[in-house]
């Protein structure tokens, strides 16, 4: 794991789309979008029906690796309002086992406002503590530094002539936006004006590599291809941060 500092808190990038919060011994993830494949199947678009299982298995591995005792899921936990009840049996069994063993908090999102904790865990619209607010969608006028999801930020990077799309964290002075954790989730360009407006000031796109994090100053709206050159724009991540 590599460090990411925000609002005087030290986090660790535990995976391309997950943070470990040592103070709370907690994992933070956003946008699981469980049962996305079954939602599309009902619309006649057939996708492999294993997305929920794959997402939960990856989350279970991170719990084991970090030793986390708490999990905060920052909204859009299910892809639609019926996804919670539709969760396939093996995934439901796996989720129930995790929520029984951990302090599990579901934060509601725009896709799953009526999530009820059917498979365990507590449900809140937002969570505040330790001087931070955890929400699904960034609020530009937040009174507390906030961590959110919703936008699925990604970064397109040119590395040795190849274009690589990577999930990334977007960190501003008052906002930290997590990438989507779900196995079937897409993404929005980190430099998109919508994200820029939410952050409301200078920001970085941050990617956690195996041995270090790197940051790319935002915005990239002046780059028509939406692609940044890793050699030109990647900067070392300072040991202190906003």
Description:
By secondary structure, the protein is of the alpha/beta class. 21% of the residues lie in helices and 33% in strands. The C terminus is likely disordered. The protein has one domain. The strands form 3 sheets. The protein has an 8-stranded mixed beta sheet, with helices on one face. β1 and β2 form a beta hairpin. It is built from 6 helices and 19 strands.
As a percent range, the share of helical residues equals 10-25%
Proportion in β-strands: 25-35%
Mean pLDDT: 86
Question: Helix and strand string, N-terminal first?
Answer: EEEEHHEHHEEEEEEEEEEHEEEHE
Number of domains: 1
> How are the strands of the biggest sheet laid out side by side?
8-9-10-14-13-16-17-19
- Structural class, by secondary structure, is alpha/beta
User: CA-to-CA gap between the ends?
Assistant: 20 Å
Shape: globular
Radius of gyration equals 17 Å
Name a few traits of the molecule:
242 residues; alpha/beta; globular; disordered C terminus
Per-chain topology:
Layout: E1 2-6, E2 9-15, E3 18-21, E4 26-29, H1 36-42, H2 51-66, E5 70-74, H3 83-86, H4 89-101, E6 103-107, E7 122-124, E8 127-129, E9 132-134, E10 146-148, E11 153-159, E12 162-167, E13 169-172, E14 175-177, E15 188-189, H5 193-199, E16 203-208, E17 213-218, E18 227-229, H6 230-233, E19 235-236
Parallel strand pairs: 4-5, 5-6, 6-7, 9-10, 10-14, 11-15, 11-18
Antiparallel strand pairs: 1-2, 2-3, 3-4, 8-9, 11-12, 13-14, 13-16, 16-17, 17-19
Helix pairs in contact: 2-4
Task: Briefly say what this structure is.
This protein is α/β, with parallel strands linked by helices.
């Amino acid at each position: 794991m590599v460090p990411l500092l925000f609002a005087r808190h030290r986090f660790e990038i535990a995976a391309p789309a997950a943070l470990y919060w040592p103070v709370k011994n907690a994992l933070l993830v956003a946008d699981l979008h469980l049962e996305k494949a079954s939602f599309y199947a009902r619309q006649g678009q057939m996708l492999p029906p294993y997305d929920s299982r794959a997402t939960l298995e990856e989350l279970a591995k991170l719990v084991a690796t970090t030793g986390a005792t708490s999990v905060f899921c920052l909204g859009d936990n299910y892809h639609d309002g019926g996804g919670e009840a539709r969760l396939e049996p093996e995934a439901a069994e796996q989720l129930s086992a995790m929520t029984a063993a951990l302090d599990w908090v579901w934060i509601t999102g725009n896709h799953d406002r009526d999530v009820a904790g059917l498979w365990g865990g507590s449900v809140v619209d937002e969570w505040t503590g330790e001087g931070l607010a955890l929400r699904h969608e960034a609020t530009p006028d937040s009174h507390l530094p906030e961590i959110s999801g919703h936008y699925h930020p990604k970064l397109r990077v040119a590395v040795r002539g190849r274009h690589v799309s990577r999930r990334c964290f977007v960190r501003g002075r008052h906002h930290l936006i997590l990438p989507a954790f779900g196995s079937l989730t897409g993404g929005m360009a980190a430099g998109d004006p919508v994200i820029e407006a939410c952050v409301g000031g200078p920001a970085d796109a941050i990617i956690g590599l195996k041995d270090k994090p790197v940051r790319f100053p935002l915005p990239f709206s002046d780059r028509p291809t939406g692609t940044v050159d890793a050699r030109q724009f990647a900067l070392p991540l300072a040991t202190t941060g906003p």
